[in-house]
Amino acid sequence: HRVNCPNIKHHPERLISADWNNQNQLTIYPVDIAIEANDRNNLLSDVIAAINQHNIPLTAITAHLHNETLTTTITATIHVSDAKRLNDIFNVILNIQGVYEVTRVIH
User: Fold this and answer.
1) Parallel, antiparallel, or unpaired: how do β-strands 99-104 and 29-38 relate?
2) How far is CA 57 from the centre of its chain?
3) Per-residue pLDDT tens over the stretch 10-31
4) Per residue in 56-76, pLDDT tens?
5) Other C-beta atoms within 10 Å of 41: how many?
6) Contact 61, 85 (CB under 8 A)
7) Closest by alpha carbon to 101, among 27, 1, 33, 19?
């Protein structure tokens, strides 16, 4: 109820203070992703550059080379505002030479 609501006028003990989130602020959420790619020189730096070029916060990244298949798994934590932004960055990463799969890691 608002402070001036007639329904709360006779029950002021039920009135509580509330602060509302500023609608102009964009909330971002951490998302863990896995990137599968054929290994090559500068693969990790190309992934980092692509993420940075699109102003996506990146807070963790690791790479693991699979010697037997000459492929690399890159795991990263990025921060996005919504599913569309996540899908957009997935498409950007998929366009990096050698990358053949990008997935969200569900824990």
Assistant:
1) antiparallel
2) 8
3) 777 777 777 666 666 678 999 9
4) 999 999 999 999 999 999 999
5) 7
6) no
7) 33
Q: Tokens 């070029």 sit at which residue?
A: 53
**DSSP assignment of 19-75, as one string?**
-PPPTTSPP-EEEEEEEEEE--TTHHHHHHHHHHHTT--EEEEEEEEETTTTEEEEE
Rounded-to-integer distance, Cα 80 and Cα 56, Å: 7
Cβ-based neighbour number of residue 25 at 10 Å: 7
**Which amino acid would we find at residue 63?**
A
Residues 6+ apart with CB under 8 A from 51: 58, 76, 78, 89, 92, 93
Give CA–CA dist 106/33, Å, rounded. Answer: 9
> CA 97 → CA 33, 40, 107, distances in Å?
18, 9, 28
Least confident of 18-22, 92-96, 101-105: 18-22
